[in-house]
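Why does residue order matter? Because the sequence determines the fold. Keep that principle in mind as you read this record.
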Amino acid sequence: MTTSSELRARARTTLHGKWTEPVLLALVYFIVFSVIGILERIPLIGWVASLVLTGPLMLGLYGYFQDLVRERNPSIGGLFSGFNRFSEAFILNLLVGIFTFLWMLLFIIPGIIAAIRYSQAFFILRDNPGIGGLEAIRRSKEMMAGNKGRYFVFCLSYLGWAILGLIPLGIGLLWVVPYFYTGLAHFYEDLNRANYVEPPLQPGLNNYQY
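Structure:
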């Protein structure tokens, strides 16, 4: 399995010469979620707005960096592409929040493990237009079996960068966020390759190698 340092190196390679747009996307991301944070102060209306907007925005965020890693030249507008699958993204975000909260009732550690278990769900949902939120969660749990510790270590490896990003009034986070999410996308791609199974030949087809 690929190590955390190798995944970070891949992220830097992906971002080399392309930092401007991901940094601008991070800025838009911070602005949007700051507005959502302000709305949350409004009783009921703010809570509903946060619940409705977060899922599609997260799907768009994950999708942007997924496309970046796959060299599909995404645009900043991709942050809002999750609204094209609003219902699935909304349900996924709601279910992840509910399940994680229920595990947190047992103790903090089970809640963290649950969050890690569901960590690939947005990538999976975007990769599979025909599935819903619950199926994306189920597939994420399968994909993360035996990989939860590696994911935790990978995320922990960005802690120093996050602290450095906070020092100059948080401005450095505009670079840390793209670096982190690009690494996450590479983590997902690595899991995809590890879990890939060659599809069986269709009946009646010759077993020729092309």
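Residues 4-192 form one domain.
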